[in-house]
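Q: Could you write out the predicted structure for this multi-component system? I'm mainly interested in how the pieces pack against one another.
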Amino acid sequence: MIIRILKAEGLAHNTYFLASGEEAVVIDPRREPADLRECLDLARESGAVIRYIFETHRNEDFVHGSLELQKATGATIYHGAGLPFKYGQPLQDGDRISFGKLSLLALETPGHTPESLIYVLYDQKYPDEPIAAFTGDALFVNSTGRIDLPGEAEKQVNAAKLYDSIHSKILSLGDQVVLYPAHGAGSVCGSGMGDRDWSTIGYEKRTNPHLKLSRDEFITYKVNEKFVRPPYFLKMEDYNLNGPPSLDSRSSPMPMGVQAFDEALRRKNAEVVDIRLPQAFGGGHIPGSYNIWLGGMALFPGWMFDYKTELLLVPYEDEDAWTADRFLCRIGFDKVPGYLSGGFEKWQNAAMPVEFTGQLPVDALKPLMDTSDIKLVDVREPREWQSGVVPGAILRFVGYLKADLPDVPRDRPVAVMCSVGHRGSLGASILQKAGFTQVYNVPGGFTAWRAKDYPVKPAR
Amino acid sequence: MIIRILKAEGLAHNTYFLASGEEAVVIDPRREPADLRECLDLARESGAVIRYIFETHRNEDFVHGSLELQKATGATIYHGAGLPFKYGQPLQDGDRISFGKLSLLALETPGHTPESLIYVLYDQKYPDEPIAAFTGDALFVNSTGRIDLPGEAEKQVNAAKLYDSIHSKILSLGDQVVLYPAHGAGSVCGSGMGDRDWSTIGYEKRTNPHLKLSRDEFITYKVNEKFVRPPYFLKMEDYNLNGPPSLDSRSSPMPMGVQAFDEALRRKNAEVVDIRLPQAFGGGHIPGSYNIWLGGMALFPGWMFDYKTELLLVPYEDEDAWTADRFLCRIGFDKVPGYLSGGFEKWQNAAMPVEFTGQLPVDALKPLMDTSDIKLVDVREPREWQSGVVPGAILRFVGYLKADLPDVPRDRPVAVMCSVGHRGSLGASILQKAGFTQVYNVPGGFTAWRAKDYPVKPAR
Amino acid sequence: MIIRILKAEGLAHNTYFLASGEEAVVIDPRREPADLRECLDLARESGAVIRYIFETHRNEDFVHGSLELQKATGATIYHGAGLPFKYGQPLQDGDRISFGKLSLLALETPGHTPESLIYVLYDQKYPDEPIAAFTGDALFVNSTGRIDLPGEAEKQVNAAKLYDSIHSKILSLGDQVVLYPAHGAGSVCGSGMGDRDWSTIGYEKRTNPHLKLSRDEFITYKVNEKFVRPPYFLKMEDYNLNGPPSLDSRSSPMPMGVQAFDEALRRKNAEVVDIRLPQAFGGGHIPGSYNIWLGGMALFPGWMFDYKTELLLVPYEDEDAWTADRFLCRIGFDKVPGYLSGGFEKWQNAAMPVEFTGQLPVDALKPLMDTSDIKLVDVREPREWQSGVVPGAILRFVGYLKADLPDVPRDRPVAVMCSVGHRGSLGASILQKAGFTQVYNVPGGFTAWRAKDYPVKPAR
Amino acid sequence: MIIRILKAEGLAHNTYFLASGEEAVVIDPRREPADLRECLDLARESGAVIRYIFETHRNEDFVHGSLELQKATGATIYHGAGLPFKYGQPLQDGDRISFGKLSLLALETPGHTPESLIYVLYDQKYPDEPIAAFTGDALFVNSTGRIDLPGEAEKQVNAAKLYDSIHSKILSLGDQVVLYPAHGAGSVCGSGMGDRDWSTIGYEKRTNPHLKLSRDEFITYKVNEKFVRPPYFLKMEDYNLNGPPSLDSRSSPMPMGVQAFDEALRRKNAEVVDIRLPQAFGGGHIPGSYNIWLGGMALFPGWMFDYKTELLLVPYEDEDAWTADRFLCRIGFDKVPGYLSGGFEKWQNAAMPVEFTGQLPVDALKPLMDTSDIKLVDVREPREWQSGVVPGAILRFVGYLKADLPDVPRDRPVAVMCSVGHRGSLGASILQKAGFTQVYNVPGGFTAWRAKDYPVKPAR
């Protein structure tokens, strides 16, 4: 028996590969060539054939790879019956699918989405003794799935459903059952996840704060959880319900020289995304480019760009562009014509125009805040503001900044802050692109501010 | 938090690497260059420094890598207090060592060996809630550790100790605790291990047959378990108590041409070990060579050769010799001058002498058994005979065959059988080397015999 | 400037990747996924885009990858003007294509095929100083290309053309020019190739025996060269003229258990190919299977099977099946449903029927030949017989054996010999499949026979 | 026959591995663990044993790996007779060493160093026809070796010796001989090297400008070549004559957290080296650190630090520190205790002090130069100044800047320029460390200045 976790950095998503004897299954595959090849390689190395593909639910944060994997293997796709999927087969609560010496039992666990399933793993020799549960976005290590996605109006109902799913379907499996969730720390599908890939039901019952709440407390807590909902989730929902575009027609980005890159960025619908860290972006970048650090490419393009935009990448070194393209592929961005090969240095050596973004550490920011010589914009998520904000800061999540700038003053220097400085630099690049001229990122962000014991006030 | 299992194929041994923040620890490292490098690479990739090395007990089936890893990292070595180790620090029951945000609690669990420890993993945030237990050779998935090693006379006492260790120290940790044993299926340190790398205490309580026995039943069961004890265990015990020879003075085997190989095999103390599968060995080999299939190289050299012997390898392809050398290194064989580069074909192309070993499938064996025209030697372990043997077979475990041949008749063809044909071919090669001329291996062995529903009788 | 040789083991074919600045080209790509991926990876790592694909000629021994590579890159395909290719652009003698700081000059060099081109590499800074020549199948290290392929009747004419191509077009480039041929030692597109990947024109002029002949001597020599022409060459010519089937519809072979394999081999059009070495095949195989050692899979399937046959593989270990499938893909075999996962041992453990092939070393063969108690079939190529044959042997190249058996006696043991024993085992398996019962392969073959100084006579 | 080039990025040095049959040799191995492992792996994969190690000369720019490779293989080391090496065997002009089917002929070619040898490769079958020449630092692609190293006083004599070595020993081998030099473009052992790894003697005769000079012209040209001589060359000469320290006592750098790094940098003899690109360094770095970009770590530590200094690295991502350590190992720096794991961001998140370096693109520099509001320091090599300098610039090679600052004004902003901005940033960091407060690097450097057609004047 083989269980392998295929982690997606950035997304913090886990695909699971299971093999027993000559048969294998995959849970929640992603539509990205290297991810899919890894599934096929694991099967080959296990001497097994992928027979079934299980989806825990219609994901909103990445594109399902089920159809691509089916094309390569002929496997049957299964998912919940509660949505009108245009592909695959529905499973009902209690359905059990066998492979090798194992079986997976599907249990309906609505709450995060209406058609969510979890899959419980059994050795066929002990059909009443669950080994592990693949809990999708219902139960995480140290947390639970968000319930706001089906709609604001239904939050109360969905929180109650999730409570019941967790308590009646999952926890009742027994303390000894290993927990394999779909997401780890860093995912946007929940908050406060632990940094382990797995847990057990018993350990979660003892330590997961969400599981210590009464039904009413849980509902109240979940209804009040603050999440942002990226615009690209709608695209993912469409793709994952109706089937995404084939990867056959997707091409990898090409290495470009300065001239080719300069021509490409002048095209309508083209945007330059600088995927270097903020220090490097600050020390010189192509005017008009956005700064999304590499790890953020798993998520923030979905906030910043529509799916018609051609994305041109500026990497620190070429392979970072290849990684960024994997991230973009996972969230459905298929128009990535190329990247500046050799990185930003090639640009500056050709004496092309260069722009800078100031970096203002907290000890330099503090006196300017005291004298109001600068305006601070805190671009963290509402959820993060709950632990306190810098007095006087404008609060505007970076995902909304591009569309919502009116109250940011143009007559004064502006500093942008997030938790450590990544989203801050994205925010600063948005402001620079919008014509602001005295813009700073705050390196270290709120983390550094805290480390200095500078004043903090409650968010509201 | 990172937990990685470093598996040793053949040995079925698990080394564990754990990292949290900037600190890492290794449990039960092995003295083999690639194994050690993997530990160091994992640390480097985790951004962590290996601070501690934990030994669950003095192993008998491989050489500890603790001293080599200490040399590379400066880490502190810990082990049980019950043996006079010449290196490392003793831990008492209840000692707790912290690293990063985690800690490991040592618990004394004698039975398999007197100084056995298990290590229980905690998040420092929840110091009373165990996450996982590294149970060494005390509790396995679906089985428990053997208790015969400290000596025949003490089996009763040690079985009782193991029962108490498991029930009072391990099972009491709670159903929710994940179980990480030192061995998986295929190890010689127990029998009947499951084919999963991990389990939970709760799942084991429900399914592990050893845990369903009363104290008395358990003692009786363990005392009657039949194990063979390879002669090299003594060497391992010496090495692991007093410190093994340094790897600095060990050289990797050299590729050899036919002439160099032919010269080398004539040296006193040299033996040729053909590491190909039995079919290939049967279809042609160097006269006088032993046949130990690649997977068996993790164990059977310890039965066949003393530590002064120079081992010369004949691989199917060169990289198999490199793998075999890793296996040999793990069990302390440091004299492996070379291998026949290009494999056996190079030998036959030079018109060097060739010997064959007949392969006698069960449907050809059956009528010869019926007419007594052949003598069958069953070289499986006593434990395996318990499920039945072929009527008329001589029962002699392959590890004892070299020394104990008198009742094998020389006037008739002899067939050698094991479970599938690997050890059978080793047995056949032993007989050929001893001058027997009509020797056959039984491909498929007892497994194929069973598949044909041929007659089987109880062992005694 | 980057030049990389992508070698195909077995085929002994060289694809060339060249990059300069931001542009790259590929010469003679092969239609095999891993080969193509290697081209794309090299381009990516070089920061270059593949702009052009050059074909030296319509190859007969593998499928061109030009169209697949074009699909992935948009590159332009170039080849000779002398054949009505259904894809790509024709180049005339003297055409020069630039990329980065380099250029390639096309020169028409008919002889091996009518439309053969060589490509001469220049630094644009020195447009009159050739650096290297990619000579396709015209000039090899230590040899020259075969001239029999366009037809027996035209051999005289083509030999003359090749002489003129070499002497007037290639050698005149100057001693200092590096030579990069399309094939190395082991290719079927010539004989006697040296074991270096490259040479220089000057070194070849000094050492290549073909270049020391006068025009008349050369023509006589080439006309008398003995080559066999595999039936699959026709398919390759068709594919390479009109475009081969897309790789999109080709699936990789699946790992199969014993039952699935047993069902598959009973299908009409299915054949079992055992890709293990002859010793292993001899020591046990599935009845009715052909034995083609792994290295031979680059060639001999084209002699043995038509393109409708489903090939089922029996590997020594699983990854050998994956390698064999790469070889099959290169020569256009796209129906490879699966392989016996875990190898032949799985079969014998299930007590399935097993067949053997005797191995008769030369010292055992010799006395039997002396007494005519055995018939020997020499299955080497006619070209190899020129250096002598065993007196009394039937001479029949293995590629013709399946179709041409009448004079092989069925009343006596038959031994099959080739140069070392690989093709001998294929020949033996053909005879066994044809109902011969006393069949032996001669391990070491004619090489071992020679090593023993046993009698040899001229072929005719 | 196998020839493999093992390139060292940064150093632009080529080690050569050659194998024939069962024997292999290595030419000019480097003392770095991964380089040595690559030699051993190549041998193993070739089925060959490394018998001989050849040194072309006592190198000045890296540490020889001959003794380490000898320790691992038992191979014999050969080098020139003209220096009192404390290890290895001397070869005389005309000595020939055979391995497999090949041989290497040693020819004395003094000029670069007194004991320089080249090695000429022959197939034993054609003992009078050289295949290739390994020319060390005598003849490069498009250039020749520097002759200033044995001493200023002997330049005239050594230039003459080199001319004679090249013309009488190397060029006379014949146009057809392939040329394999010890260095490619970017090495400090010559200038103007071509970007190919190999050439032929004939091609060099036609295109290498050094070979078109008469003896007198050549001597004049070489005597006037301007090279800088790094202080670490003395250490390398000592190591390579007497044997370097063993790698056994060298440890790899450890990943460090902010606190550990902060403690380490306060130690006497410790220096912080920031190995990020100048943009990233400019956008924030640890105060007092030097900026040597990753590629420059193969060389510039030897200019900046003595061998007692402990080097602490700040990488962009951890693996860059591992690469930098390989570079340091090659030039004999063995004290590299650790690196800031997670990179500079970890530092800023902890609110530790941050320093910046301004980046002043050429279009911003130009008007400031016009008004003398800034002082420009050109830190390129004297050789580079020959193609022109910016009017008004102070000329001071970066290697001398640390020791020679008096004329750099402290009352005005200072900009530092090199060819593209790498050494400029090192220069700027030297000035900042020396207490200069208004310091700028010029991104794009003289290359960008040229691209803008800004005024340039002759160096002197």
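A: Regarding packing and overall arrangement: Chain C has three domains: 2-237, 250-349, 358-451.
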